[in-house]
Design goal:
6 helices; alpha/beta; six-stranded mixed beta sheet
Length: about 220
């Protein structure tokens, strides 16, 4: 991940403590018995965030970890009975690639005189200490009504674009497609973004919360 030394120093200038600049401060493997400046800065910058989100009849908790401009979400997948380990391994790869390729390196954060750091996004599959729990099921075309893919329930035929859309909800974004019955007042709609039709279009407005968290500005890469 990229770190802006000036940016972190500006935001955390009131925090004091012993910094080591022994040998190469950016390679913790070369530091023996001390803590590198990079690991110290990463520790200072790492924060857990959560926010209650509501839209129309929907409500959920957005949650993620942010270390400067690197966003990580820990997800626990609970597959339904009958879904094989091999299938789950394939899905993890498909979903991880879809999420990280869609969201990462679209925008950066920075201020005048500071390094512009790209915003990067990561998903980590965990068995505990998760930000979000997702049930994985087999699509049931004959179900009435069918169970749609939502943030907490994915299906084995969902691709990387669908996973990226649901990941967007975990970050705190609402849907942007037309829902005349359940959410007739939704605005904006038909935006052509990941929250509309699962494309890899990520507008700057979806990045603002991450820049605000570190007292920075959104910058085009």
């Amino acid at each position: 991940m990229n770190l802006s030394l000036r940016g972190i120093a500006r935001r955390y200038k009131s925090i004091t403590g012993g910094f080591s600049v022994t040998r190469n401060i950016f390679d913790v493997s070369k530091i023996i018995g001390t803590v590198s400046l990079r690991s110290k800065l990463e520790s200072m910058a790492r924060e857990e965030h959560s926010e209650e989100i509501s839209e129309c009849i929907y409500g959920w908790t957005a949650a993620f970890e942010q270390t400067w401009t690197h966003i990580r979400i820990r997800i626990m997948l609970n597959p339904d009975a009958g879904i094989s380990t091999a299938t789950m391994n394939t899905l993890r790869t498909t979903w991880q690639n879809g999420i990280q390729n869609t969201w990462s390196n679209r925008w950066g954060c920075g201020r005048s005189g500071e390094l512009t750091c790209p915003l990067t996004f990561e998903v980590v599959w965990v068995n505990s200490n998760q930000h979000h729990t997702v049930t994985v099921g087999v699509p049931a075309p004959n179900a009435n009504p069918p169970h749609p893919t939502v943030m907490t329930h994915w299906h084995t035929n969902d691709g990387g674009g669908v996973a990226a859309h649901e990941y967007g909800h975990m970050l705190g974004n609402v849907d942007e497609y037309i829902s005349a019955t359940l959410c007739p007042a939704r605005n904006p709609v038909s935006t052509g973004t990941v929250m509309d039709n699962n494309t890899a279009n990520i507008p700057a407005r979806m990045m603002t919360r991450f820049a605000d968290n570190i007292g920075s500005n959104i910058v085009a890469l």
